[in-house]
Specification:
The structure holds two protein chains of two kinds. Chain A is α/β, with parallel strands linked by helices. Chain A contains 14 helices and 14 strands. In chain A, a hairpin with a 5-residue loop joins strand 2 and strand 3. In chain B, helix 8 packs across helix 10 and helix 11 runs antiparallel to helix 12. The chains are: A alpha/beta, B alpha+beta. The structure holds glutathione.
Chain lengths: 341, 400
């Protein structure tokens, strides 16, 4: 709340200063500052997890690190800002962060009315419902008259209302701004159902004291394309984030990994040559260097490496990739980057 | 001639029309108008500039979103609301919830404050010290902490709906909140309400008449008690005569949850209890100070004159104590209203939580939403303080 007020004051002050001085300058600001201000959410396993020693890790954290590597040749030059879902856009809009990377769904209203620019999709998701196994529920259709825990300020709270309306059922929402308040309420039995993106449910559940006592119902009730977001108005900065993400996907498709990237510099494949800057100068056009993707891949690996390391089947979050939407388009998924040329 | 001329020249400026500039009231008026114009102009400039800049950055501004459908559900609403309702309705829902929390908490805080305040003055050592520690401990810990403690420490630890605490199948308390029967008026209830209103008005009239007579003649007419009794008995008889025209919709367990009746969610209970307990400490201290501010000599004098102790309290101590009690109480009620915005910590949908948080985030209209929220708190604060100031003026010492 204080944060909202502060950001409001900052925003008014910035707006009252008449000139849109920020436009076009994000890259310069980041370079001058010497680090990237990247916004993530309240610590959540797999996507933006915070270790006891203060280091961040996760799918979305690696997106920040990739951009830092593209700009600085150092994936560690990131200042992470952890804010709740409800204030994320205000915090980005007023310039506190340079980008946000935190399981944020690309929607029309957000893209067109909030002064935001979505730079792509790094996780194809959908909303799910989690219930305690003891409740013996097999389908979302059995959830009439249930009490549902929802995080406020999310697409989740809009979708759940739509879902119940569409199915002519009623529910009672328990909403909170803070994920931890909500999880405690759910675990204490304050609601029958916890709803969020399925990836989020898997992540939250992996941190429960007894994860196997809860199950995610089979239904997916919405489309949640999640991706990094920047402010509207600085196209160049948007391009940098967008093509860093596309480069990560392209690298996986071309078989370029953090282990073999140096050898791949000698590849004769023209697509790989362009990706690594051996040919062409896509990087320079954006104010980076030709070989920015070499640094990114050395720093965080390709998309597949990032996925497996953070949320893959071998991690506690355990979201198997094979056969899911997030598999590469060449492997039956819909993950598809426009050509790097 | 010359003398009269100059005399009239000196006198003229006071009444003449050409010299308004020398008129103090006029000048003051002009200064005030200029100040007002500058303030309004400055405000308009800021708002206009902000909106222009926001649209330059591709951020939607303006109030047009108020008619758009909100699409999210609100966990507790005093007034009817459904997901397809507009943002404007969400604003109303938030205001109603905030006012409900403030009104219920203020009433509870006053009742508890009165008891604790009197207990602080008790001659009984145990009562006096218990109430003192109540005040000292609760007043000196942060309110936010207390709200969270009530929510997590009490209300989320309650049993689940199937194992609810149950009072004669009428009141139920569980980790989904408190459930109690909802009154359902039946035909004839309107007549009952009319009779009730007439009885109350009649009793008030009789009591006022008794007071006027006492002031005029000094004679005490013992009408107050009979009037109050009639005010209760007449409507009660009418209620029975009309065949008890009020049914109750009792809550009953059905599937996951209770259906029917009224449900007050845990967050509401935790918030109201925390707010009223916290505020009651300040009110207790105000009441204690008010009573102690009336000199002991007055009680003794009344006793010496044979005035009964209840009448001493009613006609001598309280009227004077109220003068001391009311001004600080005004700020306590205002504080309570503003403190209710801490509801956001436990997810109770008060105005700040549902409007300035959820609606702002879903619509992105920071400027109109924050402005509307501030306007609401401003209007509430000003009206509460206006009402209480009017009341305060009435209880002020009348110097004759
Ligand atoms: N994708 C949805 C919901 C995203 C969401 O709620 N994610 C959760 C967990 S993955 C989250 O951000 N939690 C942390 C927080 O609230 O800061 C949106 O963009 O509105």
């Amino acid at each position: 709340m204080l944060k909202t007020i502060l950001s409001f004051v900052a925003m008014t002050a910035a707006a009252a200063a008449t000139a849109p001085a920020q436009a076009q300058a994000t890259l310069n600001q980041v370079k001058a500052r010497g680090s990237l201000n990247c916004q993530v959410g309240t610590p959540t396993a797999g996507f933006y997890a915070l270790a006891a020693d203060g280091t961040w890790s996760g799918m979305d954290v690696d997106m920040c690190r990739a951009v830092a590597a593209a700009v600085f040749n150092d994936p560690k030059k990131v200042q992470f800002q952890s804010v709740t879902s409800a204030v994320r856009f205000t915090s980005l809009a007023n310039g506190e962060s340079d980008m946000l990377s935190r399981t944020t769904t690309w929607t029309a209203v957000r893209d067109t009315q909030l002064g935001l620019e979505f730079a792509g999709i790094n996780f194809y998701d959908g909303q799910g419902l989690m219930v305690p196994k003891a409740a013996n529920i097999k389908s979302a259709k059995e959830l009439n008259n249930a009490t549902v825990c929802v995080l406020t300020g999310t697409t989740t709270e809009l979708n759940i209302a739509d879902f119940y309306r569409a199915n002519n059922m009623t529910f009672k929402a328990v909403t909170a701004e803070n994920e931890n308040v909500l999880i405690t309420t759910y675990l204490g039995g304050g609601c029958d159902v916890y709803t969020n993106d399925k990836s989020g449910l898997a992540a939250i559940r992996s941190a429960f004291p007894k994860p196997d006592e809860h199950m995610i119902l089979p239904e997916t009730i919405s489309k949640e394309p999640l991706g990094p977001v920047v402010r509207h108005g600085d196209q160049n900065w948007g391009d940098i984030v967008r093509w860093t993400l596309n480069g990560l996907i392209e690298a996986e498709e071309g078989g370029v990994t953090s282990a073999n990237v140096d050898e791949m510099l000698k590849s004769t494949n023209p697509a790989i040559k362009r990706l690594l800057g051996v040919e062409g100068n896509i990087g320079e056009g954006m104010g980076l260097t030709k070989d920015f993707m070499v640094r990114v891949i050395k720093g965080v690996g390709n998309y597949g490496e990032i996925y497996e390391r953070n949320v893959g089947a071998k991690t506690p979050v355990n979201i198997p990739r094979d056969g899911s939407l997030n598999a590469l388009w060449t492997k039956g998924g819909i993950l598809y980057a426009p050509p790097f040329r | 001639m010359a003398l009269t001329d100059s005399g009239s020249m000196i006198a003229q400026p006071r009444q003449g029309q050409g010299s308004l500039l020398n008129n103090a009231a006029f000048r003051a008026g002009v200064y005030q108008a200029i100040t007002l114009a500058v303030v309004i102009g400055g405000f308009w400039y800021l708002v206009n500039n902000t909106i222009t800049n926001m649209s330059q950055r591709g951020m939607a501004a303006g109030f047009d979103f108020l008619t758009a459908s909100a699409g999210f559900s609100v966990s507790f609403t005093l007034i009817p609301y459904k997901e397809s309702d507009s943002y404007w309705r969400v604003f109303q829902v938030g205001m109603a919830n905030t006012l409900l929390v403030a009104a219920v908490s203020a009433a509870l805080a006053t009742a508890m404050g009165l008891i604790i305040g009197l207990a602080r003055l008790s001659n009984n050592w145990v009562i006096r010290n218990l109430s003192r520690w109540y005040v000292e401990i609760l007043r000196n810990t942060p309110l936010l902490l207390q709200i969270i403690a009530w929510y997590f420490g009490v209300f989320t630890l309650l049993p689940n709906p199937r194992a609810s605490m149950n009072w004669s199948d009428t009141f139920f308390l569980n980790n989904r909140g408190l459930y109690f029967p909802a009154p359902v008026p039946e035909s004839g209830f309107g007549i009952f309400l009319a009779i009730l209103a007439i009885s109350i008005a009649g009793a008030a009239g009789v009591i006022l008449w008794g007071r006027r007579r006492r002031l005029l003649t000094g004679r005490i007419a013992p009408v107050a008690l009979p009037a109050l009794a009639a005010m209760v008995i007449v409507p009660a008889l009418a209620f029975l005569a009309l065949g008890s025209p009020l049914a109750f919709d009792r809550p009953a367990l059905q599937g996951f949850n209770f259906r029917g009746g009224i449900n007050v969610p845990p967050a509401f209970c935790a918030l109201v209890i925390a707010l009223s307990v916290y505020t009651s400490c300040f009110i207790a201290e105000t009441i204690r100070a008010g009573i102690q501010s009336v000199g002991r000599g007055q009680t003794e004098a009344a006793k010496a004159l044979g005035v009964s102790s209840s009448r001493t309290m009613q006609s001598i101590i309280l009227p004077q104590a109220l003068r001391v009690i009311i001004p600080p109480s005004i700020s306590q009620y205002l504080n309570l209203t503003k403190n209710s915005s801490l509801a956001i910590a436990i997810g109770f949908p008060d105005l700040v939580s549902v409007w300035m948080n959820t609606a702002l985030n879903q619509s992105g209209r920071a400027i109109p939403i924050v402005a509307m929220t501030m306007a609401f708190y401003c209007v509430v604060s000003l009206s509460v303080s206006l009402l209480l100031n009017i009341y305060n003026r009435r209880v002020l010492l009348k110097e004759r």
